Structures are given as C-alpha cells and as structure tokens.
Automatic annotation (TrEMBL):
InterPro entries according to UniProt: bHLH-TF_ACT-like_plant
Listed GO biological process terms: regulation of primary metabolic process
PANTHER family, A to Z: TRANSCRIPTION FACTOR EGL1, TRANSCRIPTION FACTOR TT8
Organism name: Kalanchoe fedtschenkoi (Lavender scallops)
Protein name per UniProt: Plant bHLH transcription factor ACT-like domain-containing protein
Length: 76
C-alpha cells in the first residue's frame, strides 16, 4: 500500500464466484478498483492482480485487507 493506492496480488485454487466475492470485499473496505487482471491455469490455479484506490479519506490497514481476503479464501 502506497498513499491511497493498493495493489493486491494473489494465487489460489479457482472456484466459482471467487473473483466476485473478492471484488465485493474490496468494495466493502472502501476500495475502488481501477485495474483487475486474472487468469486461470490448466491445473485450476487463479492468479489475480487488483489495483485500487481508497474512496474518500478513510482507509483500511494492510492487516484488515489480508484478513478479509483470507476469510473469503477459507470459505469453500
């Protein structure tokens, strides 16, 4: 995280609606995504890069963002 800019890079097992849930979580944290790049490999690994900015003056910490993403990934 630099200033109000956030870049998220992650690799995980692909599952249906995962990208939608990640994007929804980012929005709920006040992040406005302006670049999303995703790909899925032949063995079912999702690679995701998101570049975002915080909306307004408030911002979530790196720890809060990680915790939210881990919760999403833990749910199967």
């Amino acid at each position: 995280m630099v200033d109000n800019n956030v870049m998220i890079e992650m690799r995980c097992c692909w599952r249906e609606c995962l990208l939608l849930k990640v994007m929804d979580a980012m929005s709920s944290l006040g992040l406005d995504s302006h670049m999303v790049q995703s790909s899925t490999s032949a063995n079912g690994i999702l690679q995701l890069t998101i570049k975002s900015k915080f909306k307004g003056s408030g911002s979530a910490s790196v720890g809060v963002i990680r915790q939210k993403l881990r919760r999403i990934l833990a749910r199967s």
